């Protein structure tokens, strides 16, 4: 829960019915300090399917899977042009390729998708395994750790910085910038983080454009669109976006997994007993992902139209939280309960349609390696006594502190 000074409330537009106005602030959500996803689900079950909030500049909120999936896929009505709330300053550069709509989006996205194909990810697997084992082995004799700093901000970030061939020692400088970008609750904080990331990346972008290698950064900053290489400004924006994603999202999911297993002994023992069962492990990971959705990306209404009896006006902002698909009791029975035997659990943790996360394959691979290597070495662990996990909401939900202990 945030204690920052309250931002001014937006006035209700005339076309928004007064009974659809809800005081909803996704940066300051009641109950989110205990369980982020359940706090969202409480909004889902007690409020209209689609409502309007005066918080964070004033915007619509969709709460049900049926509508969220439409808004993820229908770029003709729901554009990705501005994905953050509150709205960023007008001079903010476009986040490439995230804030581009099809067909333009596909031209920029292609090199990222190619770099994260299953075959390419398979080549990274041994490196992920080695970093994971080395990190865990160093923690085992300690009997405790602060999971976020000691593991979640080590494994995926080390792997990612190797993919883009940037100095590993720079992570301590980059991580606070990424944190400000995804959880800074005001536009000025996020804008400064983008400027800071751009300033850091500029020399590397120039260097890889003049002397490209076979790393991911070299591929994206030399992207060709319609036969011409993208500009330095576009390349810097592109590079910044993949850094923000690579430095935070998998770390957040690892931490949600660890928090759940530390507080649910029976589930943890189920996974420990079946670490070599590939089919079970795959379904367990998918169920944990469904239950612990993270990302929130906003949309912009492209033109005036009616949707389910509501009037949407051009330029309005809308928030369709990805995690609410997995927590929707209309598509998942008893969604708050993690059931490793669940069949066909529906979620949108990695998005859908043209903007589905290209890093999903790598993320799932890292999560699988984590479960196998951690639970084979530390099968019994719990929240350290007299401590409490610290959770955060924002454009990306996360765990910012998680103290674990084991015998």
Number of helices: 14
Q: What is the β-strand count? A: 14
How would you spell out the order of helices and strands? HEEHEHHEHHHHHEEHHHEEEEHHEEEE
User: Strand count, sense and closure of the main sheet?
Assistant: 5 strands, mixed
Radius of gyration: 21 Å
Which class in CATH terms? Mainly Alpha
Walk me through the structure.
The protein has 407 residues and is α+β, with helices and mostly antiparallel strands. It contains 14 helices and 14 strands. It has helices at residues 36-46, 65-73, 104-115, 118-139, 147-152, 155-164, 171-183, 187-210, 216-221, 232-263, 265-273, 278-291, 323-326, 360-377; strands at 50-53, 59-62, 78-79, 144-146, 224-225, 228-229, 299-301, 305-307, 310-312, 317-319, 382-383, 390-392, 398-401, 403-405. The strands form five sheets. Strands 1-2-10-7-3 form a five-stranded mixed sheet. A hairpin with a 2-residue loop joins strand 8 (305-307) and strand 9 (310-312). Helix 7 (171-183) packs across helix 10 and helix 8 crosses helix 10. The model is unreliable at 1-5 (pLDDT under 50). InterPro entries: Cyt_P450, Cyt_P450_B, Cyt_P450_CS, Cyt_P450_sf. Belongs to the cytochrome P450 family. This is Cytochrome P450.
């Amino acid at each position: 829960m945030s204690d920052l000074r309250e931002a001014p409330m937006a006035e209700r537009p005339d076309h928004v019915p007064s009974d659809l106005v809800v005081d909803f602030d996704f940066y300051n959500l009641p109950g989110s300090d205990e369980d982020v996803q359940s706090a969202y689900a409480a909004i889902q079950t007690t409020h209209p399917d689609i409502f309007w909030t005066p918080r964070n500049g004033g915007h619509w909120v969709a709460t049900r899977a049926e509508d969220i999936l439409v808004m993820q896929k229908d770029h003709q009505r729901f554009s990705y042009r501005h994905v953050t709330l509150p709205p960023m300053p007008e001079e903010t550069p476009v986040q490439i390729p995230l804030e581009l709509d099809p067909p333009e989006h596909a031209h920029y996205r292609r090199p990222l998708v190619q770099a994260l194909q299953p075959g390419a990810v398979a080549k990274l697997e041994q490196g992920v395994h080695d970093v994971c084992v080395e990190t865990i082995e160093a923690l085992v004799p300690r009997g405790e750790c602060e999971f976020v700093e000691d593991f979640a901000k080590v494994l995926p970030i080390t792997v990612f910085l190797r993919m883009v061939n940037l100095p590993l020692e720079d992570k301590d400088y980059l991580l606070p910038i990424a944190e400000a970008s995804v959880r800074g609750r005001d536009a000025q904080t996020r804008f400064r983080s983008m400027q800071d990331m751009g300033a850091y990346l500029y020399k590397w972008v120039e260097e890889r454009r003049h002397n490209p290698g076979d790393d991911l950064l070299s591929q994206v900053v030399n992207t060709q669109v319609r036969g011409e290489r993208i500009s330095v400004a576009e390349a810097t924006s592109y590079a910044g976006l993949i850094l923000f994603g690579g430095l935070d999202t998998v770390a957040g999911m690892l931490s949600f997994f660890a928090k759940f297993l530390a507080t649910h002994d029976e589930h943890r023992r189920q996974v420990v007993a079946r670490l070599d069962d590939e089919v079970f492990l795959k379904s367990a990971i998918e169920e944990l992902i469904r239950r612990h959705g993270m990302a929130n990306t906003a949309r912009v209404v492209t033109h005036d139209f009616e949707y389910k009896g509501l009037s949407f006006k051009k330029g309005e902002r809308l928030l369709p939280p990805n995690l609410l698909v997995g927590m929707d009791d209309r598509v998942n029975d008893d969604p708050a309960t993690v059931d490793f035997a669940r069949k066909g659990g529906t979620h949108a943790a990695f998005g859908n349609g043209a903007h589905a996360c290209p890093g999903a394959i790598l993320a799932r691979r890292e999560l699988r390696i984590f479960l196998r290597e951690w639970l084979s070495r530390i099968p019994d662990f719990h929240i350290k006594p007299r401590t409490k996990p610290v959770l955060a909401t924002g454009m990306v939900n996360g765990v910012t502190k998680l103290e674990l202990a084991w015998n």
